[in-house]
Amino acid sequence: MKIGLLGTGNLAVMLGKAWAGAGHSVVVTGRNPAHARTAAQQIGSAAAPIDPSEFADAVDVVVVAIPWDGLDHALNLVGGPSGALSGKAVIDCTNPVDFTTGRLIPATGSAAEYVASLAVGAGVVKALHLFAGASWPFTGSPATAPVVAVCGDDPGALHHAEALIADLGARPVTVGGIDAARQAEEAAGFVMRVVAAGANPRLAIPHVDPVPAAAVRSPG
Ligand SMILES: NC(=O)c1ccc[n+]([C@@H]2O[C@H](COP(=O)([O-])OP(=O)(O)OC[C@H]3O[C@@H](n4cnc5c(N)ncnc54)[C@H](OP(=O)(O)O)[C@@H]3O)[C@@H](O)[C@H]2O)c1
Questions:
Q1: Residue with the nearest Cα to atom 44 of ligand 1?
Q2: Any idea what the Cα angle at residue 53 is, between residues 96 and 110, rounded to 5°?
Q3: Which parts of the sequence belong to the Pyrroline-5-carboxylate reductase catalytic N-terminal domain (predicted)?
Q4: Which atom of ligand 1 is found nearest the CA of 73?
Q5: N or C: which end of the chain has fewer CB within 10 A?
Q6: Residue 87 C-alpha to ligand 1 middle, in angstroms?
Q7: What is the pLDDT of residue 219?
Q8: How close is the Cα of 209 to the center of ligand 1, in Å?
Q9: Cβ distance 148 to 131 under 8 Å?
Q10: How many CB atoms lie within 10 A of CB 177?
């Protein structure tokens, strides 16, 4: 798969390295060409920097690795509002969270829905915001693989996202449509609050045995 990293920082480099290691080719872009060159060098020989104007045509899947307050600028750089990303799968990794309080910044909706509004015609999926980039690739036993919750409506985009998440060594689990993204983003804020309070977030949720999907769907 040709993966386009929109963003040249920590998460882009970590994901890029992991996907390059799984055999994907990667292009990297952002507002600063020097940062895109450095990020591509850090990822390795499977990666190349690319000008934002050439980005959309060069990729199958876009991964948004940009802070909340840079989304508008970054999506405009690659022509999202003019439809340049139409038909592409876009994975939004943004944590639109006030890191000092854990509060979600958008009053309504989600970063993923905001990305969808800026990536006209694209299939937008929320995923990979909860885990640090340094988590990837996961190389432990599949039985203990991290579960990456995915939200989205576009079947093709979900398929691409699930395949790329599996290539990180994680287990993708689609938990809802894009209207579930706010809850997924709130989960990151909750984790930050628990950490800020000095506790381990793994111990802040109950152990619940998985219920068979048929039982969840049953009306009775
Ligand atoms: N780091 C992680 O482990 C991790 C894990 C999960 C989710 N996330 C989320 O992923 C996103 C990126 O995190 P990060 O740690 O990679 O951040 P980072 O290292 O600070 O990199 C941020 C990237 O966004 C660009 N950017 C910042 N403001 C911009 C603006 N106004 N317009 C255009 N581009 C802008 C930066 O460009 P410049 O280089 O030019 O500043 C850089 O390419 C955040 O939403 C974060 O919450 C991060």
A1: 67
A2: 15
A3: 2-96
A4: 32
A5: C
A6: 24
A7: 45
A8: 36
A9: yes
A10: 13
Q: What span, in angstroms and rounded, lies between the C-alpha atoms of 52 and 205?
A: 41
Distance, CA 70 to ligand 1 centroid (Å)? 8
- Ligand 1, CB cutoff 6 Å, lining residues: 7-12, 30-32, 35, 65-67, 69-70, 73-74, 93-95, 129, 132-133
Sheet holding 61-64, edge to edge: 47-49, 25-29, 2-6, 61-64, 89-92, 123-126, 147-152, 171-176
Q: What is the DSSP letter of 105?
A: S
Dig out the tokens for 45 from the structure: 């020989």
- Core vs surface per residue 11-37: b (16+ CB within 10 A) or e: bbbbbbbbbbebebbbbbbbeeeebbe
For the record, the structure tokens of 211 come out as 């219920």
Q: Which of 13, 31, 110, 129 to mutate to test the pocket of ligand 1 (most atoms within 8 A of CB)?
A: 31
Whether the model clears a pTM of 0.85, i.e. scores above it, the answer is yes
- Distance of CA 52 to CAs 31, 36, 37, 73, Å? 8, 10, 13, 11
